[in-house]
Design a protein that fits this description.
This protein is of the alpha/beta class and about 550 residues long. It is about 30% helix and about 15% strand. Mean pLDDT is about 90; it is low at about 1-25 and about 25-40.
Length: about 550
């Protein structure tokens, strides 16, 4: 999805939209106020000593927050496109009452200057009130989505999760776009800097978790969309060994990839990882376009440019994927997963039942799907000689509209069945729990336009409001949805504590096994939480045949 060549001038804005929509929080940024700025200092706020100096947080009754803590030095000037370096210690008590700046990124709708800062390597810690047990609380480290070009850790309010689950929750920023995923021959086989930032944050957690009442020997890495893709990368990264002990991947697996023309007709298919050599070649070409010389000295020239010159739709298009073929990611994560070369930690992995409706619905105005002719044209563009087979598997007669038929087949091809295949690779070696968020009445985020005759259903990232608070929704959660939110929070935090999401009195969540590939459906109501046969519902045998043939 990130690497697209759009067919006309309107494409620049559309590209930024498509990238940002990989996390629904990017849409909330357009609909709601930015993360709060500095707040008045409260002298009686709780103080915790970190390995770099003490920080003063904010008490919120059942939980406390410590925001804007630097976990690495500002990656600016000579540190641009270098591995994250240690933050400088500070004297006195540092105020930790607001998130640090988000990493530099384009506005959601691709108009106006870049927002954020190149100095952005900060994290936020949320802790439950009260004394921690002697062994410490489980620690949950959240990696935000946003297509590797947008988003920030400060957009996720984790107080409810921390208090209800008695867990320490950490959210973090990491470098984005051309500042986080740039490559160049002069950089050699340097890993993607955004992924290296995530590992630096995990090392900070290992050094400091106990100071916040957490157990550094019990860390769960979890994320959604690009955050889940990041979690997959860390699962297969040798340099992440020992930095986390469990993993949760929401709407993004090592296998996730988009077919040609998935949302915009004519755009090439795309996975989420790029060979190191290809990223280096793209960097050399970009340097020339930016006026920097070929050969030695190009990197110094590029480091001398303003950061804003590097955050453009074109460069975000070129540098929005992690690279493999380096020390952090020696091989493509999908290949590593299939071969069993990943860390032996328990995993939760899942999708939403209508993932692609968000992407399709947001673009129906520019790229309508009105009738059988439009549907057939999309099938031919995306699947070529296999168009007849795909059309027979997803006949228009089975769906209310062509747009909903197209969304269903894209959901299955892109998210559902790639996750199902990853579940099978994981389950043969580690405890694996698979889920599908199926609340088709989930509230839509404010700012997402209403499309007549096109319900968004349980679309991409719509489960986030059931785990984090503060999202501006078009309607509040109902009583049954609040109950689902409670159950999901309990599952996630129980898994973080024990490696098993199950607890007495909760609907049983079975292990995913190859011989019994059951997936836990998560929906409101008395029968909404139960194991289901996922593969048949999403035509995964068909898509596996297409992949192999």
């Amino acid at each position: 999805m990130q690497h697209v060549r759009l067919p006309h001038r309107r494409g620049g804005a559309l590209l930024a939209l498509l990238l940002a929509l990989l996390s629904v929080t990017s849409v909330t940024s357009a609909a709601a106020a930015a993360p709060p700025g500095p707040r008045p200092r409260t002298p009686d706020g709780p103080v915790v000593g970190t390995d770099h100096g003490p920080v003063r947080g904010r008490s919120h009754g059942t939980y406390a927050t410590y925001e804007g803590i630097p976990y690495a030095a500002p990656p600016t000037g000579p540190l641009r496109w270098r591995a994250p370096q240690p933050a400088r210690p500070w004297e006195g008590v540092r105020d930790a009452g607001a998130p640090g700046p988000k990493c530099l990124q384009l506005p959601v709708f691709g108009t106006g200057p870049a927002t954020g800062s190149e100095d952005c390597l900060y994290l936020n810690v949320t802790t439950p009130a009260g004394r921690a047990p002697a062994r410490g609380r489980p620690v949950m480290v959240w990696v935000h989505g946003g297509g590797f070009t947008g988003g920030s850790g400060g957009e996720y309010a984790a107080g409810r999760m921390a208090a209800r689950g008695d867990a320490v929750v950490v959210t973090l920023n990491y470098r984005l776009g051309a500042l986080g995923f740039f490559g160049h021959p002069e950089l050699g086989d340097a890993p993607s800097f955004g992924l290296a930032d995530q590992q630096a944050a995990l090392r900070w957690v290992r050094a400091n978790a106990a100071r916040f009442g957490g157990d550094p020997r019990n860390v769960t890495l979890f994320g959604e969309s690009a955050g889940a893709i990041s979690t997959c990368a860390q699962l297969t990264s040798p340099t992440a060994a020992g930095l986390f002990h469990k993993a949760v991947l929401q709407s993004g697996s090592c296998n996730t990839a988009f077919p040609r023309g998935a949302v915009v007709p004519g755009t090439p298919g795309s996975g989420f990882f790029e060979p190191q050599k290809a990223v280096q070649a793209a960097g050399a070409a970009a340097a020339g376009r930016l006026g920097c010389p070929e050969g030695p000295g190009a990197l110094d020239c590029l480091r001398g440019l303003s950061a804003e010159k590097l955050i453009t739709p074109e460069l975000s298009q070129a540098f929005g994927k992690p690279a493999y073929g380096n020390a952090l990611l020696p091989e493509a994560p999908a290949r590593a997963l299939a071969a069993g070369r990943f860390h032996r930690v328990p995993v939760i992995q899942g999708t939403t039942s209508d993932e692609m409706r968000l992407f399709v619905g947001m673009n129906l105005g520019a790229y309508p799907l009105r009738d059988a002719h439009d549907y057939r044209a999309r099938l031919t563009d995306s699947f070529g000689a296999a168009a007849d087979a795909v059309g027979a598997e997803y006949p228009l007669s089975a769906y209310p509209t062509p747009a909903l038929a197209w969304s269903a087949l894209l959901t299955d091809a892109t998210f559902a069945c790639s996750a199902f295949r990853a579940d099978k690779a994981l389950a043969g070696r580690v405890p694996t729990y698979a889920y599908e968020f199926t609340d088709r009445d989930a509230p839509v985020v404010a700012g997402v336009p209403t499309v007549p005759g096109f319900p968004y259903g349980a679309s991409h990232a719509f489960e986030l409001a059931y785990l984090f608070t503060g999202f501006p929704l078009q309607k509040p959660l109902s009583e049954d949805q609040v109950a689902l939110s409670d159950r999901m929070t309990d599952y996630w935090t129980r898994f973080a504590r024990t490696g098993d999401p199950n607890a007495p009195g909760a609907p049983r969540w079975p292990l995913f096994r190859d011989r019994a590939p059951l997936v836990q459906s998560l929906a409101p109501g008395a029968d909404g939480i139960r194991p289901v046969g996922f593969g048949a519902a999403h035509h995964c045998a068909f898509w596996e045949k297409q992949r192999q043939g």
